[in-house]
Design brief:
By secondary structure, this protein is of the alpha+beta class. 51% of the residues lie in helices and 10% in strands. The chain is built from eight helices and seven strands, in the order E-E-H-E-E-E-E-H-H-H-E-H-H-H-H. The strands form two sheets. The chain has a five-stranded mixed sheet, with helices on one face.
Length: 300
């Protein structure tokens, strides 16, 4: 089977149009490998191929499954330099793990004075560190990604959210002298314990949903299935819901404008992701439960 690969845009290129010869039972991956063989910089993860406005998904799906025949034209888009999702996640979460200890232990250099931390500050510090340590461990040992890579430029955009909002902004605001022992940072023990209890429940619930998602996808594959179990009976993305609850507990504990700002941005971003995933589930699986919401039970 002979196929012609052309650019999606009218931009001139020395590489396209490109002709590839494939077996009749060739898969999408076979086509991407054939393109890469002729143009070395376009490795498979950097390619997006479409036919009659349908994106050709990676995997073992044959080209004939899309109705592609001999001498057809396939549209090509360069996604740009790519970086592994796992690498992006590790880099994102590393920021707060570095920034929070600097602000907490380096008060003399950050605020110009030694600080006797209030119980609220100390508890918040450990909650934040434990949260991002959990995220790092999940990235390495739990998550199985449906997409192997993302555009390299996104690593900067994604990291701003964590390095600045939950890193610099939150750490500087919470660990300052205005929240030190004997000042506005004092909280009743029952209030601190209540916030910590909610946080623990939310974090453990978030971990359970991540493990359930992992178990849906056999190792080394990009299989997608309908998720069920804890949290999934009501919403498509319970991991986002539990994440919101955890950070709401932190915002309530600190009573910090910085924590609220981070929470608002986090909710907005997770809402976008949740709606996108919810719509994809409903379009991909005809028997997807109709009573599920995207992110918040009975609401949205």
């Amino acid at each position: 089977m002979k196929l012609t690969i052309v650019l999606r845009t009218e931009k001139k290129s020395t590489h396209f149009p490109l002709t590839v010869d494939l077996a009749e039972d060739a898969t999408v991956n076979d086509l991407k490998k054939a393109i890469h063989k002729q143009i070395k910089k376009f490795y498979p993860d950097r390619q997006r191929l479409t036919y009659t406005d349908k994106v050709l998904d990676d995997g073992k799906k044959q080209l004939s499954d899309y109705g592609i025949k001999n001498e057809e034209k396939i549209l090509f888009k360069d996604l740009g330099p790519q970086v592994a999702w796992r690498t992006v996640f590790i880099f994102e979460y590393l920021g707060p793990l570095v920034i929070h200890p600097i602000c907490y232990y380096g008060s003399r250099w950050i605020y110009g004075e030694e600080i006797e931390h209030s119980k609220m500050q100390t508890v918040t510090y450990y909650l934040v560190i434990l949260h991002f340590l959990k995220r790092e461990l999940e990235t390495v040992f739990v998550h199985r990604f449906s997409n192997g890579t993302m555009p390299f430029r996104n690593i900067i955009k994604n990291s701003v959210h964590y390095h600045f909002l939950s890193g610099v902004l939150l750490a500087y605001a919470v660990y300052g002298p205005w929240n030190a022992a004997g000042t506005g940072g004092e909280r009743d023990d029952w209030y601190i314990n209540a916030c910590v209890g909610v946080w623990i429940w939310a974090e453990l619930s978030n971990l359970i949903t991540h493990i359930n998602l992992r178990n849906l996808r056999p190792s080394g594959t990009r299989v997608r299935k309908i998720p069920h179990g804890y949290g999934f009976n009501l919403i498509s993305c319970p991991n986002y819901f539990f994440e919101i609850v955890a950070w709401t507990a932190v915002a309530a504990l600190t009573q910090s404008i910085a924590a609220i700002i981070f929470l608002v941005f986090a909710i907005g971003q997770m809402y976008i992701w949740a709606v996108k995933k919810h719509k994809r589930y409903r379009s991909e699986f005809k028997d997807y439960p109709k009573n599920r919401k995207a992110m918040i039970p009975f609401v949205v």
